[in-house]
Structure formats: C-alpha cells, structure tokens
Amino acid sequence: MAAVSFAAAAAKEKHQERTPLQRVQLEGHVLLKIAKHCRESDASLRNSEATVTGQLLGLDVGPTLEVTDCFPYPGNAGEEEHEAVGEGESYQLEMMRCLREVNVDSNTVGWYQSTSSGSFQVVEMIETFVSYMESLERCVCIVYDVSAAEAGALGLKAVRLSEAFVEAYREGSLSIEKIRAKGLSWRDMFVDIPITVHNSPMAAALAAEIAPPSAATTLDCDRLNLGVASLLEKNLSYLNDCLDDLMIEQGKLSMHQNQLRRQQQAIAQFKMQRRQENTVRRAAGDEPLTEEPPEGMFKPVPEPNQLDNMLLSNQMASYCQHINSATQQALSKLKLADGLQAAI
Amino acid sequence: MASKFWAASSSDEESEDVVTSSQEDTSTGSGSSSDSSSGSSSDSGRKKGASRFLMGSSDSESEDERRVVRSAKDKAQEELRAVCNDIKNKMHINDWAAIQTLFDKLNKQLERTQKATQTLGVPRAYIRLLCDLEDFLAKTLAEKPKLSPTNTRAFTRMKQTLRKHNASYGEQIQSFRANPIVETEAEDSASEMEMTDAAASERELNTDEEEEAKFKSVRTGVVQRPKDKILLMDPNDITYEMVQKKLQDIAVARGKTTRIDRQEQIEMLTYLAGVTRGPVQKVEVLINVITVTFDMNQPTQSAMSVPNWNRCAQTMFDIMALLEANQHITLTDTPPEDERDDEPGAGAVAQVWGNLGAFLERLDDEWNGNLKALDPHANEYMERLKDEAVLLALAQKVSEYLMARRELDKLAAVALNRIQHFYYKTDVVYSAMRNLALQRQKDSAGAAPAPNAGSDGDFKVDGEEVEGATGLIIVAIPSEFSLPESCAQLVDQLARVVYVHGNDNQKGQAMLCTVYFRCIHDDFYSARDTLLMSRIQEQTAQLDAKMQVLYNRTIAQLGLCAFRTGLINECHQALMDLYGTGRVKELLAQGIQQHRFQEKTPEQESAERRRQVPFHMHINLELLESTYLISAMLMEVPAMATLHPVDGRKRVVSKPLRRLMDNYDRQSFTGPPENVRDHVMAAVRALATGEWRRSYEYITALTCWSLLPQKDAVLCMLRLKLQQEALRTYLLAYGRFYSSLSITQLCNMFELPGCQVHAIVSRLIVDDGLPASHDQPTGTVVVHNVEPTALQNLAGTFSDKASLLVDLNERALALRTGALHTDEDENDGRRGPDGAQGGRRTRLGGRLGAAGGFGRGGRGGRGGRYGERERGNGFMPESGFAGGVFGRGRGRRQAAQRDDSNYTPLGSGFNRRRQ
C-alpha cells in the first residue's frame, strides 16, 4: 500500500471548508494511465493477486475533486519491504518535484489501486485512508476493477470512508456496542462518489479524429460473450473464502460470549462465597467484607473487533453485486441469442 | 564448629554422637567461651563414645534404649536439638520474633521426633528449653528492655503461648527443675561421664517409666475403670441395669472424641453381648458393636479392614438370627426418647434403635472400597471377591426380614443393593459365584458347631481372647441362603420389588441395571426399549455422579450388545458419545485419566477415586474400543469414498476415527499393527480400497475377540458387513472409472450372492447418487459418469457454508437472548449445528436406520447430531443416542439450562477445555 509519507506534502494544503465532496472529475488521460498501469501489472502479477497503486494528483474545487494527473508507484515491494518504504517515499517526493517542474498539478488528492471484483475492502485500505485523512481531509481512492475490464466493462469506482466510520475508527476498537450507538452498519463504511470523465477539447477532438468509422469494435464483441461461468466461479470462490473468514469471526464472537458468561458466573460465585463468608463473619462479630470482587481479579474480557466483520460484509456485498450484474447481463444476452436463433 | 571436625577425624561411628553431644553442650553451656566448650565437648564426645561401648554391655536400660543406633530416631533428636540451639541463640539477642517462629518449628519437630522414636516421651532437651524459655521470659518481663514493635508483639504472644503450652508439660518441667542434670552436664563434662553409672540411668529410667505409665493411663483412661468392675465380675452377677449403663456410656462416647480406643470398646461390647439379659439388650449391644466397628475407620480414607468387616457381617447374622427368634423386637430408625431402665419382660414388644438396611449398605460400601484398594490381579482380590456370597446371604436375610416387617422402602433399597451385585454378571460368572456360595455354605454348615457356637449367643470368652480371635472369624453362610438357578429371574424379581416400592432414584438405578443385564444377555431390543421408555436420557444432567456412571456403563454395554447382534449403526450411535469425549475411562469410572489442560483439585480427585468401579465390574476397554472403532469404520469408510475431493464436503461420521486416521497418515513409517488402533487403522486402509479380505484379517487378529463367548458368530457377522461395506466403498470410490461392471464379477470379488450385490448397487444408485443403472439382460451395472462442473461444486460448497453460517448465527443469537429453544420444531433438521449437513445427515440417518431395522431412523439421524452438540456442553452426551425418539427441543433446552447453572459434570474442567 501507499506509504504514509504524505504528511509533509499534504500539510501545505490549505484547510478546506467542509463542503462535502460530491463528485470526482477524472481527466481522460488519467483514466487511461490508470487502466494501462493496472492491466499491465495485472497481466504480470496475475497469480500473486497483488494490487498496484499509484498517486492521484489534482485540484480540490468546491464540491468536485478534479483529478488531473497521476503517476504509478514502482512495482510491488514484495521482497525488499524494508528498503521499499524509504525508497517509495523518496520516489514520491522526487516524482512530485519533477511534476511540479513540468507544471503539472502536484497536489495529492488520493491514490488509485487495482482490484479484482471488489476485494479492495481490507484493513490496509482503511489504515491508508485514515492516515491520508490526517493530513488531507478530502481524498479519494479510485479503484480500478481489472476483472470487470476483462469482461468489457469499465469497473471504476471512487470511494472514500464515511465520516461517521472514520470517527468511530479513530476512537479505537470497534465494539458492537459502539457500532450500535453510532448507528453504523457495514453499508455505511464506504461512500461511493460519482465519477465524471472530463476530456479537454483537444483530447475530444483527437478522439473524434481517430475514432474508427465502424461503430462496432472488438470491445462490443467481447460484450456479447455468453460465458459468464468463469466470472461466477471466481466470485463464488471469493465468496466462499469470505464465508470462511466470516465463520472465524463468528467463532471469535461466540467464544467471547462464552467467556463473558463464564466470567459472570465466576463473579456471581465469588459474590455468593463472600456473602456466606460475611454471614459467618457477622456471626463472629467481625466486619463484613465488601461483596465487590477486588480490582484486577476479573479482567474484562476483550471484545473482538468488528472491523473485519464489517469489511467482510462489504466485500461479500460487492461480490454479490458483481454476480448479480453478471447474471443479469448474461440472462439478457441469452434471451437475445435465443431470439436471434429463433429468427434465423 | 571445631568440635565437629575434630571428632570426625577420631572415628566414624562416634561422629553422630559427637555432634549431638556437642550441640547439647553449646546449647546448655552457652555462657562458656567457645574454646573451652568445644574442647571439652569434643573430649567428652570421645570419652562418651568409648563409654558407650562399655555401656552397651551394661544393663542400663535407658541408655540402651536411647543410644541404640537408630538413624531416624537419632536424626530426629538431633534436629530437635538444633532447633533448641537456635532458640537459645536468639534468646541472647532478644529476638522474640525469631524465637516465636522457631518455637513453632520446634513443636513440629517434637511431633516428628515422637513419631520417629515411637514414644510419647518428651526429650529432655525440649523440657530444658521450655524451662529456659520460661526463665528468660520472666527475666525479660522483669527487666523490660527496649524492644522493637515487632519484637514486642512477638514477645507478648510468646508469653501467652508459652503459658498455655507449658501447662501441659507442667509435671515434666517441675521434675526437671527439681533435678536439672543439665547444669552439671554443661559445667562439668567429666562428671557427666561418671553419671552414666547407676544414678543417672536410674533417674532417666524413672522418668521414662513415669512417662510410659502416664501415656498408658491416658490411652486406657476411658475404659479402664469399667473394665475393672464389670470384666472381673462373675457374669451371673451382672444385672440388666449395669449392662444398660455401660452401653449408654459407650453410646455417649461415640463420636465425641477421637481418643477413645475403639478396640477396647469392641472388646467391652463383645463381652457385654455374652452377659446380656434378654434378647432385647443383646440386640442393642450387637448393634452397638456394629456402629463402633464402623466408627473405627474413616470411610473417606480407607476401607474397613477385613477382620472388622467379617466381624460386622457376623454380628449382622447374629442380629438377624436373634430378630428371627424373637419376633417381638422391632428395629426403628429413630432412637427411642425414653430410656428403658428396667428389664423388659420376655416376649414383651420392644423397640430397638437400628437400621439394618443402612448397615448392609455400609457393609457393601466397605466391601467395594476394600476391593478398590486391592490389586485386582492379586490373589487377595479373588479371596475378597468370595465374600460377596456373605454379603448376598446377608442381603437376602435382611430383605426377608424387611419383607416380613413390611418395611417396604428399606426393602427396595436392599433389593437394589442386591441387583447391583447381579446385574453385571454373565451367566458363566453367575453360576460360578453360585457354586462358590453353595460350596461355602456347605462348608460352613459342616463346620457349624465350632464357629457358630460363638454366634449362637454364648460368648464365654473374655475380651482378650476375642481380640486375638478377630482375625480368624470366618463368616458362616446360613443354610437357608439360596441363589436361584437363573440370574435373569432373580434380577427381574428384584427389579420388580424396586419398581413397586422404591423412590425415583432407586427405580432409575434398577432400570439401568436391568438394561445392563439384558445387554449382557444379548437382548438388545428389549434393553433399548426399556431404556428409551424410561426417558432417563433426558435427565442425565440431573442425576448424581454414581448414577451417571451407571448410565454410561449401560450405554457402553448397549453398544457392545448392538455390535454382537450386528446392529452397527446402533452400536456406533451408542458408543460415539463415549468415545467422542476421549475420556472413556473417566466416564465409565474405570480409572483416572490425566488431562493435559486441566488440573484437578484434590477434592475432585478424591471424589473421582471414590466413584471408581471395582475391577471385577469393569467393561473391557479394549473390546469396547475395538467395537467402537470397527463400527465407526464400517460407516465411515463408505462415507469417505463418497466424498468428492473438489467440493471438500465432509460427512464426518466419526470424529475420533478421523483423528486417528490423520495421525496414522502422518506417520512416516507404519509398522505392522500392534494395538487395537493400529489394527483398525490397517483395516480401514484395506477397506478403503475394497480389499475386504485383508481388512478382515486385520480385524480377526485382534485379541479381544476371545473375550466374547459368541466369537465365531460375531466374526461371521463382521465378515459379512465388511464384504458389504467393501462393495459399497469400491463402487463409490472407483465406480466412475468404469463404464460398466459385471454383477457376477462383483459377486466373485466380494463373495456375496447376486441378489445382495444387486440390492446394494440399487441402494447406492438411489441414495448415494451413484450415477449408474442396471442392465438386466447383460447382468451389468452401467455407469453414466457425469462430473459436476467447477461452478456447480462451488455453488454447492457455498450453500453449505452459508447455511452453516446462518445456523451459527442463530445459535449465537439464541444463546444471547436465552431463547434457545423457541423456533425448534418448525424448521426440520436443516439447521443443525453442522448446518447444511444436517439435512443431508437426517436423510442419511433415515436410510441407515431403515437398513438397520430401526423404525425411527428418520429422526435418529438428528439424534446423532444432538450428540455432538451435547458433547460440547458437558457430561452426558448420550442423550444424543435417544434423540431419535425425543424431540430436539428438549435436548437443546437441556443444553441451555446446563450452561446457565453451575452444574459441574463428572469432569468439571471439561467445559473449559472444550470451548
């Protein structure tokens, strides 16, 4: 994930008035850059399931966040993690400096990362977000879904954490009580921000110029592909993994409940004992002892953190959504094919 | 200590002595300078050593007694002196706190010394120290030196303790003060040498004698006087009142103090029994004999000694004979309020306090306890076991008596007691015991005149003789004792008595015993039906530990019985819960298991020890284990073969077996099988590939089959089962590699008749989804192999997992809200704790149940799951076994209750470990 070295760069950022972020305006070439980076690295890193990340640069104008440029972070620092931290930092700063010199917006507005079908909701993402938000109030993460791109769709999403969640997260471990008190649910963790793609007139003109005469492209052909099985398989296996994790979480919770109950029993027993002891003592004319157990005798049982639970829910929701849309399309395509065959 | 080294060089033998003497010296002659004292002491030591040898030949008793080299004794005394020394040293520096702790230590040391030397005498050094301390205390009190607060506190406390303490040694202290030899000892060591002559030894002798005398008087204090009076009287002069008074004395002394010598009391009582006036009094005396004998040992610590037990039994017989002869005497539970002072007329109705049923029970307990303490492989165990006949004869007499007196509740207890002696006996054992009893009866009838003379009532022996004779009491079995030919009849009859007259607990026990008995006699269905009718499995948690053990034993026996009858599924269901916990020994109370993650408190451990079942009642664990593992194997192996590697769906029938298999697979080298598990594992491996012959070989190699009387029939059954299951396994595992299979070939492979192969294949096709069909004309099975796609597999897994998660969630919620049992009966087996498998398992259970002729199969499967849940919750998982009959709601509710209460099951640490 992105390193946390932005404090310095972002500190220069003027403090914005708190108008909520309403949309993200993405420059066309930024989008292309992101797509290129993600797909290339995805091709090379297909097996390792690693995500690639990059820096978004741009301007914060009122309710819109204009993303005018970006640059990728150097490849995943799998092997030399320790060096990479320092290197990544210097690389970022160097990059920013260079970009400023060529008169590109050098304000950090967030980062982008690749994903495959919605598995971006992980703890690291939250951590990065929170560390970004310490210095940069309005930042986004643009998630580029590689698997969607393969199916011929543009899987692009701009997400940020909801205010309520960040607030709760900063207060420490997320207990059930706290979540309930704040009225949080897993749906409220991430906020999707609509993206508009903006092209400069020049770019638009160029696009018009190089557009092929035929309306049909290979991409359209891709879209007509009837086989959704692989996509479904992938999503299902992700879902299975999620379910396993969820069950572990469930196990943790029920263990916690058990511990709690046992402790309460122990406390009750202790009190009972004390009461009996006290009756004896009273009979003997001694001072009765307090019924409350002494400090530190019963340590409160630590409650499992609900963060993972929520994240898993989010992930599963996005997988389900993927499956839904895929099957919807598949069904309509099947219908179409059916009609076609009937016509022929 | 220079002296020590010095002396060490002189002679080895002396050295010990020297140390003591030198210490004595330093302790006493504390004022003298170290130089002189060491010199003199070492000197004296040597001289003393020399004189010691001289003295050995002299006739000075006391010296002899003290100086004989008895290392434990010497050491103890030495240590005592060392502590004395320390105290002296502390006295010099006025360190009262130290003195106090040392004083405590000294008292402990004194006890030890007394134990080591086996006298009650107090060493002189100790008395000397007491004197010194007293003096010093007085001195300090008079001087009032400045002391630190801790010291002051210690001083005042010391003052009090010493005052109290010295009171008990007042006499010795005085005698010591009157004659403080020590002073001379200390001042002049040479004089001490001379004192080894008559004067000193006499003095010491005197004190010793005094002490001894005192000790004796203390010991016999209670009984001494009456002994003088009554024992020496002419028996004919003893009146009713005298005996009555004596009896009251003893009764009053009972339980009052531990210092009474019970042996003497018994002597007294046996004597009294001989001189009583009238049967009423005699019964009273005899009952007192029993109670006092019972008092002689702590039941929690060790069992009664055999002579005592015999005496009790004999006394019981005497009482019975007396009661029979004198019908007007009745026994009551409550002691009569008004004391009888005058002699009741002959034949007048009289009430005597006593409870024969309770005595019998106690006797039975003691017998059991005695057996537990014995080594089961030793001869004594067998000898002791023979006494069961006595117990049974006694029980029979008591129950006859109670029957005649219509004391029905006690009758039930006695009947239950008798059942408990029979229920675990197979026919062979029973007839052996019967023969033995009859033989013994004959013997005792032949020898009747001699030993029975005593029991017939005229105790013309005085106390001493009785004491000597106690070891020789051989309890005669009365001639009217009889055991019926058929044990079943007897058990049935006794059980009926309990059912009619007993309370719930007794009825339950009797029921379990009959079930056990029927299981032993291969009557599975009636045993099972009786068990299920009783609904006892619903209340297992409320039962006491003893009954839980009985219940477990019954269940184990039920499983064994099912196995012998060839009902593999039932066998597995019954035994699954016992083995699922991995604590079979503990559950059956056949030994104490150590658990890795739990420590038992001493109370728990002793309670468990008390629960243990005597060895002759044990269920052979090896047989039980092989039975369980084989039944699990027969079910698990085909189930494993159905398991598709892709979807990872696991229908685990038997977790313990799976665990064993995993362990077995992990071994890098597997040698030839040695124990039960190895054999079964090897058999599993063979069966998994359809090689039933090899599997059968492994299983027949087990030694425990020889324990079964119907070994051949069982092995035959096993062979058939192995053939069938091997066929199933083979088809499930390798069927998809064939396009068609010839029925005749299958018949040859598995040595099964064609129709059976046909039946098995058909069932596989219908139930387990073997993609095949019969082709009648060619006599083949045609396999249509269709592999599910990856997506289908995934979807299947997903649905399994999802429903499992939902179930877990519901359970968690229910636990939290405490409404564990609400939505039970609406949703069928779908939402078991193991989720989607629930539904499937239910179906499976139904099928297997139907196959086994278990009419309730459909729900039986659910029951199986129950077991698993219960297992997590505590002791009695067996309710799962019967879950097939009783709804799930109850099972769950029980689990909830158990969670809430502080119920500590058999091994209470279990929950902790489990969760």
From TrEMBL, chain A:
InterPro entries: eIF3h, eIF3h_C, JAMM/MPN+_dom, JAMM_MPN+_peptidase_M67A, MPN. Component of the eukaryotic translation initiation factor 3 (eIF-3) complex, which is involved in protein synthesis of a specialized repertoire of mRNAs and, together with other initiation factors, stimulates binding of mRNA and methionyl-tRNAi to the 40S ribosome. The eIF-3 complex specifically targets and initiates translation of a subset of mRNAs involved in cell proliferation. Residues 275-298 are annotated as: Disordered. It comes from Chlorella vulgaris (Green alga). GO terms for cellular component: eukaryotic 43S preinitiation complex; eukaryotic 48S preinitiation complex; eukaryotic translation initiation factor 3 complex. This is Eukaryotic translation initiation factor 3 subunit H. Residues 24-165 form the MPN domain. Component of the eukaryotic translation initiation factor 3 (eIF-3) complex. Coiled coil: none annotated. PANTHER family: EUKARYOTIC TRANSLATION INITIATION FACTOR 3 -RELATED. GO terms for biological process: formation of cytoplasmic translation initiation complex. It is found in: Cytoplasm. The keyword Cell membrane does not apply.
From TrEMBL, chain B:
Residues 1-75, 819-915 are annotated as: Disordered. Residues 615-788 form the PCI domain. InterPro entries: EIF3C, EIF3C_N_dom, EIF3CL_C, PCI_dom, WH_DNA-bd_sf. GO terms for biological process: formation of cytoplasmic translation initiation complex. Its main location: cytoplasm. One of its GO terms (cellular component) is eukaryotic 48S preinitiation complex. Residues 846-864 have a biased composition (Gly residues). SMART domains: PINT. HAMAP family: eIF3c. This is Eukaryotic translation initiation factor 3 subunit C. The lineage of its organism: Eukaryota, Viridiplantae, Chlorophyta, core chlorophytes, Trebouxiophyceae.
